What we know:
Layout (H helix, E strand, L loop, with lengths): L2 E3 L10 H9 L8 E7 L13 H4 L13 E8 L3 E8 L3 E4 L2 E4 L5 E2 L1 H18 L6 E7 L26 E2 L7 H15 L9 H11 L8 H11 L6 H12 L2 E6 L5 H13 L5 E5 L2 H13 L6 E5 H9 L26 E4 L7 H10 L4 E6 L14 H7 L7 E4 L1 E2 L4 H10 L7 E2 L9 E5 L2 H14 L7 E5 L11 E4 L8 E7 L6 H8 L2 E10 L13 H19 L7 H9 L2 E6 L2 E6 L4 E4 L7 H14 L3 E5 L4 E2 L3 E6 L4 E6 L4 E2 L9 H11 L8 H13 L19 H14 L6 E2 H9 L10 H14 L3 E5 L2 E4 L8
Parallel strand pairs: 1-2, 4-8, 8-9, 10-14, 10-15, 11-12, 11-13, 13-14, 16-17, 18-22, 19-20, 19-21, 21-22, 25-26
Antiparallel strand pairs: 2-3, 3-4, 5-6, 6-7, 23-24, 24-25, 26-27, 28-29, 29-30, 31-33, 32-33
Amino acid sequence: MAIFLPTYDQTSFVSEAEHGLHQLFAALSDDFTVIHSCPWLRSTAKRIFSKEMHRYINLFRNERTNVTGEIDFIIAHPKYGLLCIEAKGGEYRQHGSKFVHVYSNNTIDPLEQVKDNAFTVINLIKERHIQCPVGYAIYLDSSSIDTTNLHPGLAPIGASKLADGILILKQHEHRIAERIVELFDFWSNTSDFAGRGDFGKEVDKFVNTVWPKEALNDSIGRKIAFDEQVWLKFDASQHRIVKACMTNEKVLVAGFAGTGKTLLASATAISHAETGRRVLYLLKNRKIAAHLAEEFSKNHLSKWIEVSTFHAYCDAVGSDGNFKSEEFATLHRYLLTRNNLEIDCLIVDEAQGLSEEEHNSLNIHFGNARKYIFTDEHQIFRAYETGVDHVRLQSIYNLDSKNSYRLSSVYRSPHCVTKRILDLIHEPNEIVNKRTDKDGKIDTYFVYDLEKSIEKWIIELLAKGARAEDIILLTHYDVKYSILDVQCSTIGAFRGMEKPIVIVLPIADTDNNTLACALGRCTTQAIILADISSFITAPHKIASIYLRSSLTAKLSVLKEYDERRDKPIFIENLIIQFGLPTYAHAKGGCDFSYSPSWRCWIVMSEKFPNTVSQLWAAFLATLTGIHIYGVNTVENWLGHALEVMPCDSCGTWTPHAYPKLNCVSCDAPSPDFAVLDDIECVRSGGNPPIPSLAQSIVNVIRLIEPSGFVAGPPHQVSTPTNDIWQMLIRIILLFHGQSLSREVQREEIDAWIAGYLTFDPDVSIQKIIGGAISGLCNTGKMTKTSERRYRFLISEEHLT
């Protein structure tokens, strides 16, 4: 049986035709190698530093060149060479060199597609110094084609006539091995290699190029290795831009992430250097500046191309080369002290990261130099740089629209990454990802142990053929992770650079723009790992709309998983697992329960929804002497300034109070369980013997509850600390006074109060009543009209 790359269990098929043909190829002998779904996107990462650069770049030729695609099948054989096959499913009829679907009338052109693929393979093997025949064929799984009258493109003329042209049809399936040999024979005898018949070394070299031995059984390793070994040719629009940079003194190039700005900037630098011009290449990122300088040096271009960060250059102009941090923001002023007449060409990459003042200084300092500005205004980190958009750059450098270009074709990033970036940012211009990996996705996970999750992912990626140097961890702030030799950087410091695999580690402060910048650094796969503990404390404050919506979508699943953990982090699960709530009941639309392990009352709300629930909390606290803590499930907290954590004395996780983080349960009293029974009796309408203050609270609750009366705006859930008697009196007065338009005497007020409140003998009744009345007068709810006479001034806003 043929050797299959990848093996069947690791293969995904996009059509029944591909799947069917893959199974047919099992009839081939083991000297055949069948490569399925071979991508030929060529990396931009190293191509710009090729010693034979101009072999690949013709600045003044805009020929059509395919830069991306996917070949359904390549069959390799040591005797015959290579055969590219395009598989099409469905019933078609021939229409010239094209085919029309019998039912939908859609027209397809598999001939053009397979020819493009074959010619790309030919170019590839020439670049790799591989010499062998390359042919092509089309498989139609369900079509009845009259092969006696085929279009010449489908029946090319060779050394011999090929029956049924280059088609593989239904009638060939029972003898598929013979048909493949027929096609191989035709193309090998038609090529310049006729009669040779020994391409074993060449075929092995090709297979190892597109599918390196270290990644034989894995798609990730294969994609990365292939991407790094095979280089990208410029497309027509990029040709035009480099040509413009050679023929114009000023050019502005704006481009979306992955469109090749640094590739073009470097090509421009090399092209000018090779004509004898001195080039200064400025960036903001130190890492990429060092990398570019090293690569130019390898190619003996350091004499002509100087690479520097903007601020390092400014400092060198105006000082002894040592940075003075206090002057960092104004270093650009050094450029105004003198002009640079030695540089012929100024190239500014990452131009969006510099301020308007800095660009003005550059323009003046290099007054006579050619200027080429490359920018992506979406990659501005607003937290620490003002940045400048392309419109202002046009104005600063006095550029018209003829010399301003926009790159719109993405080659570097996978299709799913470009799609996600477009979801994250506002891009008014059309962006087209030319890659064919449309089935990929960005994995976004909210994890509990971030370091363990990072390590798990890295181990998995390494097992699939990736190398440690293929992976980068990108953080929001400067937090260093040292895990399995994988590099770690902040998102800002890695701007303009790239890695095959990017693992983004966002925090709640990471906004859409910063997240987009991070994702745009990957060439093969992007993964987002978010530490859930930093996101659930204030979901409404999560800066990225995408991360916020992702968390919302996964919240129920996360909470369900969290419930099964030994140490949950969601407050409702902490309450259930460690608070062990009991005596659960509802009052006033609010859920109350008692935690025997924490010795406190828990209210499943941040605020009391109404006056009844507020009074009920006061009743519970008064009767039991136990604290009451509210719960905010949205921001994931219990009470105010409390954190649930282990307590050695209590032997469990309990609430601890800031700032000293002392356990609030250790010294809390335990209630008399008979009192808890009294609470249930009261809630059910009974009248057990309880203290006078507690009974007074119950009386007021029963006064206002039937009408749903609300005595004011919602209050934060907390243990009542103010004078409860005054609170009760104010509620009684507001309840009775809400519909009164006449004056009332103090004696009438006293009668209202006496009907509901029973004071202890040691309580100064008149003083408390007087205090309550004064409070209502001070807040505009009552006014004193004469001695011991009052009028209520209650409006709806006073009660809501």
